[in-house]
Amino acid sequence: MKKFVLRAAVLAMLTAGIATASGIAGASGAMACGNDPEKSYSFAASLPQINFRDQGPNVVALQLALRKEGYDLQGTGVYSVRTLAAVQDFQRKHGIKASGIVGAKTWNALVGHKQHSLTGKFVSAPTFSIMPGERNLDKLATLRGVLERIHPYSSLPQKGINDPGFDTYGPDTQALVKDFQKRAGIKASGIVGPKTWAALIHAVSVSGGWTC
Predict the structure, then answer these.
(1) Which residue intervals define the domain Peptidoglycan binding-like in the entry (predicted)?
(2) Which residue, 43, 143, 152, 203, shows the most beta carbons closer than 10 Å to its own?
């Protein structure tokens, strides 16, 4: 029940007035649930080429997208041998030359078929920063709503926004943010600023994680 309360609050925030204040664009409930017919081919075409041994937020996003396809990847942010094997297997299964290079054809097969609402048609990065000790519940709900969509960074306490312990940006959530920042090649300060928001939103969008 507590998990439902948190998710309901986050969904309301993403689809109603709080979304506007937070910098996340609003959408109708139906569209936010991925019921729109538009696909994400243009978004897939905008994604950069990724090569073996690359590092950073685009690699995290790739790994999380492959994880959605059933590959056992942890979102390390490093394009290692394990990620290479997953990419090549995905390419072979989709009739793409198994080069391991993630280019237009691979992105199109991996992301392009997803409904546009699931890849962030209605979502933009928040315009505010979050510092350790932040107590604004709207900001905290925005952050945690994004974090819980990034597997395996979703080990958040299952609390509703009115429960004790959910009223401060404390050490537990900071640890998750710092871990993500390290994997995305961002200074692991725990401060959620423009670079961190952009990497978080990008990772969810590429993996098609904007679900109900």
Answers:
(1) 55-110, 167-200
(2) 203
Whether residue 24 contacts residue 6, with contact meaning beta carbons closer than 8 Å, is answered with no
H-helix segments, 70-186:
81-93, 104-107, 137-147, 171-183
Domain that holds residue 85: 47-113
As given in the structure block, the two tokens for residue 150 are 């990034």
Using a 10 angstrom Cβ sphere, with 0-12 exposed, 13-18 middle and 19 or more buried, the burial of residue 70 is exposed
Which pLDDT does position 157 carry in this prediction? Answer: 53
Mean pLDDT of the chain: 82
Q: Taking Cα atoms as reference points, which of 129, 126, 127, 135 lies closest to residue 170?
A: 135
Check whether residue 89 and residue 167 sit in a common domain.
no
Q: Do 181 and 104 sit in the same domain of this protein?
A: no
What CATH number does residue 63 fall under? 1.10.101.10
